Amino acid sequence: MFSRSALRVARIAARPSVTKATRAPFSAGAKLWNAEFVGEKEVPAVSFEGGEAQRSTLIVDKASSSKRNTVDTVVPLTQEVYDSMTPSLQKMTIKDKTVIVTGAARGLGNMMARACIEAGAKNMIIFDANPELGIASAAELHAATGSKIPVEFYPIDVRDAVAIDQAVASITEKYGAPDVLINSAGIADSNIPCEIYDHEMWRRLIDINLNGSFFMAQAVGKAMMAANKPGSIVLVASMSGSIVNYPQEQSCYNASKAGVIQFGKSLAAEWAKYNIRVNCISPGYMDTALNNVPALDAQKKIWKSMTPQARLGAVNDLNGLAVFLASDASSFMTGSNVLIDGGYTLY
Ligand SMILES: NC(=O)c1ccc[n+]([C@@H]2O[C@H](COP(=O)([O-])OP(=O)(O)OC[C@H]3O[C@@H](n4cnc5c(N)ncnc54)[C@H](O)[C@@H]3O)[C@@H](O)[C@H]2O)c1
């Protein structure tokens, strides 16, 4: 049973036209979501199927940071189109896969979720710590597919291992074990010299970027193993895990992403015997809300000047790589860390 206000939220969210979440300015240590949400032990979910919101236990609360994704069309891969593809192209799809994308309420995660649907995902499950934006984005994504692809939103903070386990169990019960995890949830602190780095901020960032990758991979990996199912885990790291950014000081972020890369490699070695592949995507500077703040304008000019392609990556520039790593086209690839940075790391 769901409360009236919760159902109202689901109904509102099911309307594709919902917009206007507020955008909080990013600054070092700015809260990108409602921290009080962390530790939720129930795992409420909202499903969008057949054009309807199916259920919700969520009470939307305070305004949270957001940059809405634009509504456009997401074209699901049909059987007819799949059948007309050459074998090589078929291998590049993720037809009939169940996919979890974290941090997909907006930004790179949201775009990768869209791409996965166009590449054949049968179900799309979004985990994000921003409940208001997550519900709206799931509704929007479902509507963008012409209400053809179920999109389920779980208001999960990737620091909350208990909630993650419960959510993965619930997904597995409904759809079977997930085939693909793309872990894109992450935060950044920048322009903070190490000597004045607040200890709590450091712990919080490591907790989200590194521990969150571990909690997510462990929960999804265990579900894949229990079902004896091959799977692909894609961890979104950063070029900052391999280089030191200039000019901003951001030792904690860089350390967290280096940890993600080494964690991904270690996991790839451990889980190859279960037919579970683990790879990292390491983006360069991307044009997302994470960087979309006036305070970074001057630095962006420097970033561009240091990038051979002389631009930031577009928000959908990871899509092809994410689908490739999720698909069987990359079946001999595990433990890789793929830089996708417009050439930034060449210099
Ligand atoms: N934007 C860039 O330039 C860039 C470069 C390299 C790597 N990355 C990485 O790509 C990933 C996505 O970045 P983005 O630019 O799309 O950022 P974004 O801020 O636009 O989106 C991040 C999403 O993650 C969610 N999130 C934050 N903390 C969470 C938590 N604890 N639990 C669950 N969800 C949480 C947010 O609500 C948001 O929806 C991050 O891991 C980031 O470090 C980004």
UniProtKB/TrEMBL annotation:
UniProt-listed PROSITE patterns: ADH_SHORT (PS00061)
Keywords annotated in UniProt: NADP, Oxidoreductase
This protein's record includes keyword NADP: yes
Gene Ontology biological process terms in this record: mannitol metabolic process
Gene Ontology MF term list: mannitol 2-dehydrogenase (NADP+) activity
Presence of keyword NADP: yes
PANTHER family listed in its UniProt record: SHORT-CHAIN DEHYDROGENASE_REDUCTASE SDR, SHORT-CHAIN DEHYDROGENASES/REDUCTASES FAMILY MEMBER
Stated family: Belongs to the short-chain dehydrogenases/reductases (SDR) family.
Name of the protein: Putative NADP-dependent mannitol dehydrogenase
Source organism per UniProt: Lachnellula suecica
